[in-house]
């Protein structure tokens, strides 16, 4: 077993020195500064490898290795199969080839529409005093129903949930309401994109008419394109499950349970297939 640390790069308040001091063996990171859909060049990958392997503050080797990418983001056009999706798929393939050239063979991705993994609190204090991330379904309902005011949102909640969400909202001062909005739509740690409320509503509308069957079909087509390349260059692909594993914001979800995983693995003709739960990931 190897101890790995999720590191968000040079801008992370946790320095590579801190990672080394914590006792990690390996680093999980990504090139978050590169816009979604663009190619990860060999030069940029090698630069991040150097940032992981060399402590510039202490001017010595860290002993750490970048072994897992979380994530190479999938552009929204690929998920919808609209716009410039074909070129974005070709760019994705080249990024996989470049990672392999640099000796990195484990790549995580996800196919969650619009939002990556979602939380409602980034600083929830545990009894020990430690801070953790938290997802509160009622808080999310308050955001969707009364702050975002998404059309049709009421259909996704019971009357009890609506009542509880309204009560919850009344406990929040304006600054806390803004904090909730920012937490959900302005980008979590590792997120590549953030939105204003107006932009967010507009992006959600782009998924009108795309149900779970269509999104699943688009996922299978995407993996059908990149899996042969990954296999050819020795890349292991790991899909991040839907987080939370339910439909949110009226968007379809297609990687929430074992049936979803089976549908993906049985639909893509690749020679090697793994379902290996490493932390919260399914490897395939």
* Cα gyration radius (Å): 20 Å
* Proportion in helices: 40-55%
Number of helices: 10
Distance N to C terminus: 19 Å
Summarize the structure.
The chain folds into 2 domains: 4-114 and 210-283, Alpha-Beta Barrel (TIM Barrel); 121-187, no CATH class.
Question: What is the secondary structure topology, with strand pairs?
Answer:
Elements (H helix, E strand, L loop, with lengths): L3 E3 L9 H6 L4 E4 L12 H12 E2 L4 E2 L3 E6 L5 H5 L4 H17 L4 E4 L11 E5 L5 E4 L2 H11 L11 H12 L3 H12 L11 H9 L6 H22 L2 E4 L18 H10 L14 E2 L1
Parallel strand pairs: 1-2, 2-5, 5-6, 6-9
Antiparallel strand pairs: 3-4, 7-8, 9-10
Helix pairs in contact: 4-9, 5-6, 5-7
Can you put this structure into words, describing what you see?
The protein has ten helices and ten strands. With 284 residues, it is α/β, with parallel strands linked by helices. The strands form three sheets. The protein has a six-stranded mixed sheet, covered by helices on one side. Strand 1 (4-6), helix 1 and strand 2 (26-29) form a beta-alpha-beta unit. It is globular. Mean pLDDT is 90; it is low at 273-284.
List keywords for this structure.
single chain; 284 residues; TIM Barrel; two-stranded antiparallel sheet; 41% helix
């Amino acid at each position: 077993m190897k101890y790995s640390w999720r590191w968000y790069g040079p801008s992370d308040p946790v320095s590579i020195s801190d990672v080394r001091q914590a006792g990690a063996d390996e680093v999980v990171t990504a090139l978050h500064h590169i816009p979604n859909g663009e190619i990860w060049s060999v030069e940029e990958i090698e630069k991040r490898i150097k940032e992981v392997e060399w402590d510039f503050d202490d001017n010595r080797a860290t002993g750490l290795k970048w072994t897992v990418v979380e994530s190479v983001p999938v552009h929204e056009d690929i998920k919808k199969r609209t716009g410039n999706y074909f070129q974005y798929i070709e760019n994705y393939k080249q990024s996989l080839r470049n990672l392999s050239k640099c000796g990195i063979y484990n790549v995580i991705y996800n196919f969650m529409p619009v939002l990556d993994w979602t939380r409602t609190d980034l600083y929830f204090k545990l009894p020990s005093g430690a801070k953790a991330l938290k997802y509160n379904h009622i808080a999310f309902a308050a955001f969707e129903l009364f702050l975002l005011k998404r059309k049709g949102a009421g259909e996704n909640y019971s009357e009890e949930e609506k009542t509880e969400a309204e009560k919850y909202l009344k406990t929040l001062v304006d600054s806390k309401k803004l904090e909730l909005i920012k937490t959900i739509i302005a980008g979590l740690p590792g997120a590549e994109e953030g939105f204003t409320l107006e932009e967010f509503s507009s992006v959600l509308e782009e998924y009108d008419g795309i149900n779970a069957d269509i999104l699943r079909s688009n996922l299978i087509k995407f993996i059908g394109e990149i899996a042969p390349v990954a296999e050819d260059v020795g890349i292991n692909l790991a899909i991040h499950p839907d987080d939370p594993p339910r439909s949110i914001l009226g968007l379809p979800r297609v990687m929430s349970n074992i049936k979803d995983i089976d549908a993906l693995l049985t639909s893509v003709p690749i020679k090697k297939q793994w379902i290996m739960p490493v932390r919260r990931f399914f490897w395939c």
